[in-house]
Structures are given as structure tokens and as C-alpha cells.
Amino acid sequence: MIRRCSEQDFEPIWNIINDGAEAYRGTIPEDRFTTPYMSKEKLRHEIADGVMFWGYQDDAALTGVMGLQHVDDVTLIRHAYVRTENQKQGIGSKLLFHLRQLTSEPVLIGTWADAIWAIRFYESHGFRLVSVADKSRLLEKYWKIPQRQVETSVVLADANWWRLRTG
After folding, report:
1. Which of 66, 166, 138, 25 is nearest to 156 (CA)?
2. Most exposed residue of 7, 43, 109, 161, measured as fewest CB within 10 angstroms of its CB?
3. How far apart are CA 105 and CA 91, in angstroms?
4. Pick from 51, 22, 43: nearest CA to 34
5. Any long-range contacts for 17-26 (C-beta under 8 Å, 24+ apart)?
6. pLDDT of res. 162
7. What is the pLDDT of residues 106-119, one digit of tens each?
8. Alpha-carbon distance 158 to 126, whole Å?
């Protein structure tokens, strides 16, 4: 079952993000990987900044989360993670499909450039990598991330963004 997360889900969201982020250890630049990967303060800041989390609930527990954030004229998919023990079961795909149904705006996703598996996942769902020039412009316009993260990330866009871009 997919449902909108509430304040009562804060701890499970935080745990899922930090468990799922272990996949990045040794892949992304060492100066960008921290333990925990996301602090509770950072998660609170993201929620206060408009990231709405949705969760996949299996029986009584959340097993995956994905954030949706409307920024100006686009929707961002943010902080998409599945518990390590529940990966490769289609949970991320179900969450992504559900969140895409919640917006008619172009959808953008940022991820680490070296996280090839994440890029391939989004590409398998119809997203395409934007150019390096567009990536930097988009990350600086729609995300609030450090310059070092801009340098080491990519942006993928859905068909709506590409249609608007090519007019």
C-alpha cells in the first residue's frame, strides 16, 4: 500500500533513508557521504521546505519512501529510498509511478553521477539525462544543495520537461 507519510512516520522515514543510502557508500565522493547519511535536522529541514513523503507500507511497516516537492514550475522527486532488505522488489517503481500521477508539471530527479544503478532505474521509467549545462542550471534553480553536490550530480527529466524545452 502506498500512502502519504505523517509526522508519526518521521523516525521510519529517517531510518529508511539512512539504511537505503548505504548503497552509495564507496560510490559517491567520500566528502559527500556522512554517517548518518541524512541527519534528523536535515530531514526536518527538507520537510519544512516542502518535501512531502510518500511511503510503501508492507504489512505494518514502511519499507520504502519517496519525496515529492513542488518548486516553481516543476515537481522534484526527492530522497527515494528502499530498505536494503526490500530492494529489488518493485517498491521504488511503484512509488515513482504513484508520485508521477500526482502532478501534471514536468518532473525532475537529481542523483549522484556515479550512482549508475540509480540513473538506469530512472531511465527505465522514461527519464532522460539532461545536458551538463542544463544540469547545473536546474540544480541551482530548483535545489538547495552545496556546490560540491552540484558538481557530482546529474539531473534526469521526464517527457513533459523535454516537450516544453523543445516547444
Report:
1. 138
2. 7
3. 23
4. 22
5. 17/43, 17/65, 17/79, 17/81, 19/81, 19/83, 19/84, 20/64, 20/81, 20/82, 20/83, 20/84, 20/87, 21/81, 22/84, 23/84, 23/87, 23/115, 23/117, 24/112, 24/115
6. 94
7. 999 999 999 999 99
8. 6
Q: Domain limits at 111?
A: 2-166
pTM of the full predicted structure? 0.95
The total of structural domains in the chain comes to 1
Q: What's the whole-number mean pLDDT along residues 139-162? A: 96
pLDDT tens track for 62-87: 999 999 999 999 999 999 999 999 99
Question: What is the H or E stretch that residue 112 is in?
Answer: strand 107-112
